[in-house]
Amino acid sequence: AEIAGYYFASQLQQCLARNRARTGKARVPDIALFATLKKLVRPSYAEGFTKLFYVHTGEQSFEVRDWDEEISAAE
Fold first, then answer.
1. How many beta carbons lie within 10 A of that of residue 52, not counting itself?
2. Which residues fall within 8 angstroms of residue 45, CB to CB, at 6 or more apart?
3. Which residues, in sequence order, are CB contacts of 9 under 8 Å at separation 6+?
4. Which residues face 8 on adjacent strands?
5. For position 74, what pLDDT does the model report?
6. Sheet strand arrangement including 51-57
7. pLDDT per position as a tens digit, 6-56
8. What does the DSSP 8-state code read for residue 21?
9. What is the 3-state secondary structure (H, E, C) of 27-75?
10. 36, 43, 49, 59: which has the fewest Cβ within 10 Å?
């Protein structure tokens, strides 16, 4: 079996803006985003993935790239 992982590269400011546009239970406190970012660990092939992809998010689109350990660590 192949195990594929997709890492969505989101900027904190974009996440905060999208969250502020939500209403009701869909919106979370801003501190939740900061806490999640602090715990975030990027995936690596050492975890057993056979394929990894880096996903850049745009306003209305996604760009999927092949994973590059060195580039992904720098971004």
1. 20
2. 52, 67, 69
3. 54, 55, 56, 57, 75
4. 55
5. 57
6. 4-9, 51-57, 62-66
7. 998 888 998 999 999 999 999 999 999 999 999 988 899 999 999 999 998
8. T
9. CCCHHHHHHHHHHCCCCCHHHCCCEEEEEEECCCCEEEEECCHHHHHHC
10. 59
